[in-house]
Amino acid sequence: DQQVKQNSPSLSVQEGRISILNCDYTNSMFDYFLWYKKYPAEGPTFLISISSIKDKNEDGRFTVFLNKSAKHLSLHIVPSQPGDSAVYFCAASFLGGNEKLTFGTGTRLTIIP
Amino acid sequence: SAVISQKPSRDICQRGTSLTIQCQVDSQVTMMFWYRQQPGQSLTLIATANQGSEATYESGFVIDKFPISRPNLTFSTLTVSNMSPEDSSIYLCSGRRDTNEKLFFGSGTQLSVL
């Protein structure tokens, strides 16, 4: 039972344009969501997070949007840069992130120069 | 965040053998975890490595197959025992120094079982 789903295994975006990565979840008890970024041969690194009490969190070029009624979150990267090419994992947790993380399958983002 | 050194980075093993993966953190961490990523799948939590006591395993994972040690607050090992081709995966250790810190990861071990 996949509780966190990333339905797009890959995405290609032109440099300078907006990249939008999507994530859906099924468990309404999740109250904390994170995005991790992974380069080849490296471990995932934390990118940005959002609590369920918010619907938007912004950090520089990265913005995460949360739609609780639709059980959907998205990561916006603008403008996209070649260094953003990586695999992006969505993750969800309970208790404000203090419980274990449940990850999605990842989306491979390729930025085209 | 702290830095986790994980080794080996990759290995090719024969069916029926065992492989031990090591993770060394450059500072003390309260929590350490082991994840697996099978091809095309999500990162799946195998177990929480508890310092000085038996690891806590997630559903579907057992100690006989994935024995874990954590002798102190900076080091942990995961052994993949009696390997089969289905064990071919990326194995990742991770840690967190306190509940306010985001989880950080080692670089992973790419395991192929022939």
Attribute tags:
heterodimer; A: 113 residues; mainly beta; 5-stranded antiparallel β-sheet; 11 strands; 0% helix; globular; B: 114 residues; 7-stranded mixed β-sheet; 4-stranded antiparallel β-sheet
Oligomer: heterodimer
Beta percentage of chain B is: over 45%
List the helices and strands of chain A in order. EEEEEEEEEEE
Number of strands of chain B: 11
Q: Name the chain pair with the biggest interface and residue counts per chain.
A: A-B, 22 and 22 residues
| N- and C-termini, Cα separation of chain B | 36 Å
Helix fraction of chain B? under 10%
Uncertain stretches of chain A? none
- Report the structural category of chain B: mainly beta
User: Between the first and last Cα atoms of chain A, what is the distance in angstroms?
Assistant: 38 Å
Helix proportion range of chain A = under 10%
Binned strand content of chain A? over 45%
Uncertain runs of chain B are none
Descriptive account of the structure:
The complex is a heterodimer of chains A (113) and B (114). Chain A has 113 residues and is mainly β. Chain A is built from no helices and eleven strands. Helix content of chain A is 0%, strand content 53%. In chain A, the strands form two sheets. In chain A, strands 2, 4, 5, 9, 10 and 11 form a six-stranded mixed beta sheet that branches. A five-stranded antiparallel beta sheet of chain A has the order 1-3-8-7-6, with no helix packed on it. In chain A, strand 6 (56-59) and strand 7 form a beta hairpin. Chain A is globular, with a radius of gyration of 13 Å. The N and C termini of chain A lie far apart (38 Å). The mean pLDDT of chain A is 94. In chain B, the strands form two sheets. In chain B, strands 2, 4, 5, 6, 9, 10 and 11 form a seven-stranded mixed beta sheet that branches. Chain B has a four-stranded antiparallel beta sheet with strand order 1-3-8-7, with no helix packed on it. Chain B is globular, with a radius of gyration of 13 Å. The mean pLDDT of chain B is 94. Classes of the chains: A mainly beta (113), B mainly beta (114). The A-B interface holds A 2, 4, 9, 34, 41-46, 49, 89, 91, 97-98, 100-106 and B 1, 4, 6, 9, 33, 40-45, 48, 92, 94, 99, 102-108.
